[in-house]
């Protein structure tokens, strides 16, 4: 990802455009993913995805991302426009997978994958909350929705990308933000999302969510490598 990037090493001097571009692409990817899994899809969101999913970054570097893009694109572009029936079908699939009322096929909380009884608000939730509070990230539905919901965890990574970009652009040290992203990926997202993603693929009735699950799993795995590369570049300075 960082091929041919030359960084500037003087204190308080911005890093190279290549590094900033990589951070922007990471923020874009997390923005797409957080919007996908945080709430049921609106007509406007689906129209946007219909026209932009093929632009999801790093597809050439991940078979899972490329496969997911093809599935989502096929799902949304079967006809010239998205009908009300199409939107209703995707909203129902989201509800059935992640909300209920029946037993959830793919519970969207980290703690549900950490214990056999799939209990929520366990120690994993408190650990995630601690990571949020360090960066003053307070979910809008604090104490109403478990902090370890997939949409919130992805939103947290997105917010850290924005913080990272501002620090890098202004020449401030961004080592700690990168280390926190690395830790959050290793200790949280990558520990449970592979199982979560497989549950979606095995139980979804739409190619859209099967594809987005594939993109999610592929991207998180790839992003850990991106963070490690950025840490290497930063520490070399």
TrEMBL record:
Keywords: Chaperone. It comes from Desulfosporosinus meridiei (strain ATCC BAA-275 / DSM 13257 / KCTC 12902 / NCIMB 13706 / S10). InterPro entries: DMSO/NO3_reduct_chaperone, TorD-like_sf, TorD/DmsD_chaperones. PANTHER family: CHAPERONE PROTEIN YCDY, DIMETHYL SULFOXIDE REDUCTASE CHAPERONE-RELATED. This is Putative component of anaerobic dehydrogenase.
């Amino acid at each position: 990802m960082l091929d041919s990037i030359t960084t500037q090493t003087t204190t308080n001097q911005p890093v190279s455009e290549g590094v900033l571009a990589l951070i922007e692409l990471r923020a874009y990817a997390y923005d797409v993913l957080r919007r996908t899994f945080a709430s049921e899809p609106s007509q406007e969101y689906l129209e946007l995805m219909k026209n932009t999913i093929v632009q999801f970054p790093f597809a050439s570097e991940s078979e899972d991302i490329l496969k997911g893009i093809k599935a989502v694109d096929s799902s949304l572009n079967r006809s010239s426009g998205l009908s009300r029936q199409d939107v209703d079908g995707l909203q129902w699939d989201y509800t059935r997978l992640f909300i209920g009322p029946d037993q959830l096929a793919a519970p969207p909380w980290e703690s549900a994958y950490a214990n056999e009884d799939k209990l929520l608000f366990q120690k994993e939730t408190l650990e995630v909350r601690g990571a949020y509070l360090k960066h003053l990230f307070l979910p809008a539905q604090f104490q109403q929705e478990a902090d370890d919901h997939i949409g919130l965890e992805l939103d947290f990574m997105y917010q850290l990308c924005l913080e990272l970009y501002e620090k890098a652009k202004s020449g401030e040290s961004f080592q700690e933000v990168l280390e926190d992203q690395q830790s959050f990926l290793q200790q949280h997202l990558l520990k449970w999302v592979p199982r979560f993603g497989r549950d979606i693929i095995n139980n979804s009735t739409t190619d859209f969510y099967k594809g987005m699950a594939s993109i999610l799993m592929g991207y998180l795995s790839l992003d850990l490598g991106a963070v490690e590369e950025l840490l290497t570049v930063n520490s070399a300075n």
